[in-house]
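Bumping my old thread because nobody answered last time. Still need a sequence for this structure:
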């Protein structure tokens, strides 16, 4: 069935190896949404600059992010994948938007307050982060932006900025809608809390079998003895197993929990097998892509060229609207 005409866009920060929480909470859903006339996905390296100060690490994370996304099924024939920093028009639009962004909009952003509380330096970049995000979105005339619940406030800021620009200078930007990702699958980490890089409890999607086994063995369980019945609904191992298993497999393991006679070690072994089976093809694709770094770079460059073409058109519209106009016959092309 052909998809309705709409522009879908999302970005993900390359702040570390993607983990199971990122996959089930975000990446899998991005991939399901690809295939629209304009499906743009980018690696938000300019945003990551607000927290990563090690240049080698940022470069490595960005390269890993591209490999991970392609291996997991992002298809360059159905979606445009690029690095945010390869579209310099985005920083130009950020400045234009900053000039009409009211301070109070940014002051109320919880993500800024949270990061400050966690000890991240309160630089101007961190404070104005939502304006860069607004530019990311508005510059591609995005209609729909798939994001996790934590980013909805930033989408509201984007809409406020677009509306203010439109009311000062006339209709220029498309107002985007959030497509809130289903995060009912709040993926638990090895300590049972929400899996997150900030809590050091993640299981990366792509790691060596040895390390994955080790991390899975580290998942915290209670001290119910092997022979005693166990409650699957109170167990992070079972919660994780459910992500990878079909309903029959889930019922079968739940029944074994309830019957007793099965230790958590065995359940962890089943989780490992289920995860390896689930990501098996992606592991193979990633190994194959690692052997062809030039092809991955080609994908990113081709994506960036497509993104720049659209970005140049929208920035020109914004420039004309606010009086940074060039004579139309002298507009430089990219
Ligand atoms: P982290 O918490 O590890 O820093 P990010 O904040 O970069 O992860 O998250 C990127 C995306 O992955 C977001 O859309 C977020 O909602 C999703 N995500 C992250 N962790 C989880 C989790 N444990 N369960 C569900 N979704 C998650
Ligand atoms: N701020 C988003 C996050 O941390 C990443 C992001 C940057 C983004 N620019 C965007 C997401 C534009 C959607 C649209 O998850």
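Sorry it took so long. Here it is:
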């Amino acid at each position: 069935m052909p998809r309705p005409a709409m522009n879908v866009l999302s970005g993900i920060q390359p702040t570390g190896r993607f983990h199971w929480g990122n996959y089930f909470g975000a990446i899998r859903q991005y991939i399901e949404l690809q295939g629209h006339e304009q499906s743009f996905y980018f690696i938000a390296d300019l945003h990551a600059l607000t927290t990563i100060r090690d240049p080698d690490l940022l470069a490595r994370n960005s390269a890993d992010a591209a490999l991970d996304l392609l291996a997991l099924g992002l298809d360059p024939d159905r979606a445009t994948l690029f690095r945010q920093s390869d579209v310099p028009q985005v920083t130009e639009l950020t400045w234009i938007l900053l000039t009409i962004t009211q301070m109070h909009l940014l002051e109320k952003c919880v993500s800024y307050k949270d990061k400050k509380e966690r000890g991240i330096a309160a630089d101007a970049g961190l404070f104005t982060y939502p304006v860069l995000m607004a530019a990311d979105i508005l510059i591609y005339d995005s209609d729909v932006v798939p994001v996790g619940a934590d980013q909805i406030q930033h989408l509201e800021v984007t809409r406020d900025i677009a509306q203010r620009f439109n009311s000062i200078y006339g209709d220029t930007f498309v107002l985007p809608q959030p497509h809130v990702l289903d995060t009912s699958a709040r993926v638990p980490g090895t300590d049972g809390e929400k899996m997150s890089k900030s809590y050091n409890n993640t299981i990366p999607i792509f790691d060596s079998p040895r390390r994955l086994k080790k991390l899975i063995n580290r998942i915290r369980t209670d001290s119910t003895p092997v022979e005693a019945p166990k409650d699957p609904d109170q167990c992070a191992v079972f919660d994780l197993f459910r992500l990878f298993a079909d309903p029959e497999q889930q019922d079968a393991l739940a029944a074994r929990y309830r019957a007793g006679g099965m230790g958590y070690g065995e359940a962890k072994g089943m989780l490992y097998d289920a995860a390896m089976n689930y990501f098996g093809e992606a592991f193979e694709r990633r190994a194959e892509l690692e052997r062809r770094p030039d092809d991955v770079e080609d994908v990113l460059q081709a994506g960036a060229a497509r993104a720049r073409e659209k970005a140049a058109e929208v920035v020109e519209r914004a420039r004309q609207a606010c009086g940074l106009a060039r004579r139309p016959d002298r507009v430089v092309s990219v």
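Residues 12-13, 15, 21-22, 24-26, 148, 150, 183, 186-187, 194-198 surround adenosine-5'-diphosphate (ligand 1) (CB under 6 Å). Let me know if any region looks off to you.
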